[in-house]
Model the fold of this input.
Amino acid sequence: MKINLVRPCAFCPGVERVVQKTKEIIADYKSAHIYLIGNIVHNDELCKQLLKNKNVKILENKNHDRLALVKSIKTNNNVIIFSAHGTDPRAVDFAVAKGWKVFDLTCPWVNRIFSKIRYAILHGYHVAYFGDKNHVEAIAAKGHGGNDLTIYKTKKDLKKVLDKPYVQVVAQTTMDQQEYIATQKWFTPPAIIKFADTICHSSRQRQENALEAKQYDLVFVISDPNSHNGQSLYQVLKARQKHVVFVDPQHIKLNKKILAKKKDCAIFTSSSVSQEQVDRFVKKLNKLI
Ligand code: SF4
Done:
């Protein structure tokens, strides 16, 4: 069976940056308490590796309330690292005011959206944010936009937005591009509406690869189950390919039966999967074919 590794694969530049930077900070601040506010990226295995450093803690709560997490810190000599997904600016302000060493590693693509949100609100616009209301990035965006921002996924969510005179529409960086475009018909005049193309380059490229891919006998999507872009990729591929298998890199289960009579396969990855995890999967696959 021929294995096609679809590129880009493994870390996107934003995740690469946050992982490298976090490792450098851990090496530089050996005697400090280091707090990662939320999982630094959606890669459970990588987070567990970082936790092998005794002075590193990951703080997380189920509603991703970053301010509450930072407020819960009781130690001194702290280093605070905010994840690539962005954060409520009040959490950063709180940590800075405490005099702690703060590293805000928000991806530049996410920061670009936050700037757009603040700029639009400053100019009298209401912001309609196409995203998943439980996702860390969307919660952070809400922290920037407050009551002037509405997160939507369905037309019903826009009920209170459609009577606003000025509306700026943006999308979470990892949303499905086609779905986002389709929602644009929900916005109708007399409102003045501005749409911004805010899905990040890496997510867009992976989605386009999935949309344009030829038919393979078998497709694997390697992704942490909590990765939003990995789940989006899986859905796009599932709708188009014959046989798609979701692979959690921490628990690779390969059944020889699914490989039978397959002439070719393609491997797609989310942007928070490491090259090491991809290589491990390919090695296992090669042993079976
Ligand atoms: S997926 Fe996009 S927004 Fe998220 S870290 Fe990577 S480049 Fe940044």
Observations:
- Residues 30 and 55 are 7 Å apart (CA to CA).
- The chain has a mean pLDDT of 94.
- Residues 109-199 form a domain with the Cobalt-precorrin-4 Transmethylase; domain 1 fold (CATH 3.40.1010.20).
